[in-house]
Design a protein that fits this description.
binds dinuclear copper ion, 2 helices, 2 domains, three-stranded mixed β-sheet, single chain, Immunoglobulin-like, about 180 residues, alpha+beta, about 30% helix
């Protein structure tokens, strides 16, 4: 079969481009944690505040007994709640997002955080932050007139500092509870 040299050249160039794109997707998926959302978990959007997992006291950063960190956030026109969270560097964090009204998206620049938050579903993304700093949490799906102003922020601090501040927070909570106990006596 005769193939014109110019045609051959373009066949090779297009094959090269396809291989390059596949390689970029694979590298992002395997080394940068950029994956298609795959967590199919449903929730009743109208009753989020009554749900066990996403009631107000349970939002924000939670640390399990085994040290796993989970962040639960509710997206609603026009913010992510809570408005600010504090996270440690170099630690795996599991984010769980739900919407209380319409379709939102969440994007944290310079991280792998980018997912739609579809009402009725829980969006889950694992992330970690190599460097301390202030990371904006932005909505990237048009959700209404206030869409431009829909953002919250994550403050990432060194993990030692974070652990220490956690301990003081817990100590403060405990003394508050003790004080309340002695007042009642
Ligand atoms: Cu929420 Cu745009």
């Amino acid at each position: 079969m005769h193939i014109d040299p110019l045609e051959k050249k373009w066949v090779l160039i297009s094959l090269g481009m396809v291989s390059l794109f596949v390689a970029i997707i694979m590298i992002d998926a395997l080394f940068h944690g950029v994956n298609a959302p795959s967590n199919v978990e449903t929730i009743d959007s109208r009753k989020i505040h009554l749900s066990k997992e996403f009631n107000e006291d349970n939002l924000g950063v939670q640390v399990a007994d085994n040290g796993d960190i989970t962040v639960r956030m509710v997206a609603g026109r026009y913010a992510f709640f809570p408005k600010q969270i504090i996270l440690p560097t170099e630690t795996k964090v599991t984010f769980r997002w739900v919407s209380m009204d319409v379709l939102h998206g969440v994007h944290m620049p310079m991280t792998n955080m980018s997912t739609m938050i579809v009402p009725g579903y829980v969006a889950q993304v694992e992330s970690s932050f190599p460097r301390p700093g202030e990371y904006p949490i932005l909505c990237n799906e048009y959700c209404g007139l206030g869409h431009d102003h829909m953002w919250s922020k994550a403050l990432v601090i060194e993990k030692e500092e974070w652990a220490a501040s956690r301990a003081t927070q817990n100590a403060m909570l405990n003394t508050a509870i003790e004080d309340e106990g002695s007042n009642n006596e």
